[in-house]
């Protein structure tokens, strides 16, 4: 039942909200004043959570930075990681794989709402996308990234890719590590079935990047990875045999 209800909600919410976001963008409405696109994104995410029977519990909300833009780096095991974060974070956008832009209606709405699409197989285009995202952060918007690159099949934290951290250094913006736990039980990778569950969103101690240069990207990656891994181990007893940076993919940007 939850699966059917969630699928119907995806369809109806996208049909309703995507054109509103597109119209607001075309009319040039001031995002700071009206926040129409942000309202569309947050309403869409909250609708998904409600339909799926997901209760989102936020830990340490005081670590959500409201005075300036930041990069929020989260683990990733389910599409409901996205919905949970999007339902609670103020003034944000996401970095998403370019394939999602091709989805009918959704792609246009997401682009109008400011989602940054990343061509992961094109190094030059990916860097340009991150440069655009850095400008958004500098202007005060929060950017959500999933530095593992794709969804995992379990909660064990996987190596990070450098792109999101290059973005943070370029913007001289803090990185807020985020751990989402419980979303895998709602909808794991490879499954279309949806089950209700409580999803915990942990906002961890921000990592400042002021004064950091490109050469310190790996140091930043290790610190952020370590804070998420530590929370995962301490709160849920889940360890990992992985390392923050994979030798074979440490220089991949997406």
Question: How would you describe this structure to a colleague?
Answer:
By secondary structure, the chain is an alpha/beta fold. The protein has a single domain (2-236), classed as 3-Layer(aba) Sandwich (Glycerol-3-phosphate (1)-acyltransferase), CATH 3.40.1130.10. 43% of the residues lie in helices and 15% in strands. It is built from nine helices and seven strands, in the order αααββαβαβαβαβαβα. The radius of gyration is 17 Å and the shape is globular.
Comma- or semicolon-separated keywords:
single chain, 254 residues, alpha/beta, Glycerol-3-phosphate (1)-acyltransferase, seven-stranded mixed β-sheet, 43% helix, globular, disordered C terminus
Tertiary shape = globular
Mean pLDDT, to the nearest integer, reads: 86
Number of helices: 9
The total beta strand count reads 7
Q: Helicity range of the residues?
A: 40-55%
Which CATH first-tier class would you pick?
Answer: Alpha Beta
User: Order of SSEs, N→C?
Assistant: HHHEEHEHEHEHEHEH
Strand ordering within the main sheet: 1-7-6-2-5-3-4
Helical/strand content category: alpha/beta
Measured between the Cα atoms of the first and last residue, the distance is 36 Å
List the helices and strands and how they pair.
Elements: H1 2-26, H2 31-34, H3 36-52, E1 54-59, E2 71-74, H4 79-86, E3 92-97, H5 106-112, E4 116-118, H6 123-138, E5 142-145, H7 163-171, E6 175-181, H8 183-186, E7 197-203, H9 217-236
Parallel strand pairs: 1-7, 2-5, 2-6, 3-4, 3-5
Antiparallel strand pairs: 6-7
Helix pairs in contact: 1-3, 1-5, 3-4, 6-7
């Amino acid at each position: 039942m939850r699966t059917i209800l969630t699928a119907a909600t995806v369809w109806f919410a996208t049909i309703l909200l995507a054109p509103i976001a597109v119209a607001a963008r075309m009319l040039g409405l001031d995002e700071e004043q009206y926040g129409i696109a942000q309202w569309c994104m947050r309403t869409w995410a909250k609708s998904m959570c409600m339909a799926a029977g997901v209760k989102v519990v936020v830990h340490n909300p005081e670590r959500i930075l409201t005075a300036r833009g930041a990069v929020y780096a989260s683990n990733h095991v389910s599409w409901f990681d996205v919905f949970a974060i999007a339902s609670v974070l103020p003034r944000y956008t996401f970095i998403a794989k370019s394939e999602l832009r091709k989805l009918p209606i959704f792609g246009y709405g997401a682009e109008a709402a400011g989602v940054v699409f990343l061509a992961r197989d094109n190094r030059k285009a990916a860097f340009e996308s991150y440069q655009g995202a850095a400008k958004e952060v500098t202007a005060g918007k929060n950017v959500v990234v999933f530095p593992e690159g794709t969804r995992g099949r379990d909660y064990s934290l996987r190596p990070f890719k450098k792109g999101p951290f290059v973005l943070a250094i370029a913007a001289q913006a803090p990185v807020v590590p985020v751990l989402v736990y419980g979303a895998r039980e709602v909808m794991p990778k490879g499954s279309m079935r949806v089950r209700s569950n409580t999803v915990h969103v942990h906002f961890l101690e921000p990592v400042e990047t002021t004064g950091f240069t490109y050469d310190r990207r790996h140091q930043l990656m290790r610190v952020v990875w370590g804070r998420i891994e530590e929370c995962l181990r301490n709160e849920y007893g889940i360890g990992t045999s992985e390392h923050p940076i994979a030798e074979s993919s440490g220089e991949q940007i997406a």
